[in-house]
Amino acid sequence: MKKTIIASACVAMLAACSQQATVKPEGVKLDNEKSKLSYAIGMDIGASLKSLATEFDRPAMMAAINDKLDGKKLMLSNEEAGKVKKAFFQQQSAKRVAERKELAEKNKAAGEKFLAENAKKPGVTVTASGLQYEVLKAGDGAKPKESDYVKVNYRGTLLDGTEFDSSYKRGKPITFPLKGVIKGWTEGVQLMNVGSKYKFYIPADLAYGEQGAGSTIAPNSTLIFEIELLGIENPDNSAK
Questions:
Q1: What is the sign of the dihedral through the CA atoms of 27, 30, 31 and 34?
Q2: InterPro entries of this UniProt entry (predicted)?
Q3: Which of 83, 100, 207, 210 is the most buried (most CB within 10 A)?
Q4: ∠ CA 24-26-31 to the nearest 5 degrees?
């Protein structure tokens, strides 16, 4: 519905523009609701076009808009226009895939280099899976099982120090099923006693792998987590 309304408004706005083609951009005044609405919709259109990350031939674009609005014969048939757009979006898709692959390879190499050096540091333990950790604070409570729910405080960062998540900042610990998180967490937290605090260095294949997560965690990112195990809290409310 929103897209339909915007599209209709765009037609109205562009029709007005075609009737006032002699008005220069610097002469535009936003002195009434119509002009403000037109400019606001133009902002949306501009943002959408900019998101395509390519250069446009503005005269050709405006010519097509005016020809369409004025009912003139178009320079491209719908079939020809469709082929041009399809080819463009295929190129854009291939470009994004290539860029993502390049980034994944770069992150994988950076992660492997970091972990190789980090493994040599005093106090760092490496497990059979490649997970690395160091004990920041020892605890004397129980150790959770994979089937348990655990209550933790944590802070997650990338190799460059960028913090992407933190329960400390939110001011509230979280409780979750241990088998419902990334492999590095599932393995690592089971090593901890309640009351302890560990720092984990998690290889990409034990984190989010080539898929990544959202816009912050890129493909093949090695992640660093400081985790404080506060308790074991299962659904039956029997806290440990």
A1: positive
A2: INFPOTNTIATR, PPIase_dom_sf, PPIase_FKBP_dom, PPIase_FKBP_N, PPIase_FKBP_N_sf
A3: 207
A4: 100
Is 80 within a domain?
no
Q: What is this structure's pTM?
A: 0.70
CATH number for the domain harbouring residue 136? 3.10.50.40
Q: Could you give the number of structural domains in the chain? A: 2
CB-based contacts of 67, cutoff 8 Å, min separation 6: 73, 74, 75
Q: Are 219 and 104 in contact (CB under 8 A)?
A: yes
Tell me the two tokens of residue 77: 């048939």
Same domain, 217 and 114: yes
- The pair of structure tokens assigned to 174 is 């979280």
Q: Give the sign of the dihedral formed by CA 60, CA 66, CA 69, CA 75.
A: negative
Q: Does position 16 have pLDDT exceeding 60, yes or no?
A: no
Q: What is the pLDDT of residues 162-181, one digit of tens each?
A: 999 999 999 999 999 999 99
Q: Which residues pair with 228 in a beta bridge?
A: 153, 197
Q: Give the structural domain span for 194.
A: 109-232
Q: 215: closest CA among 54, 103, 108?
A: 103
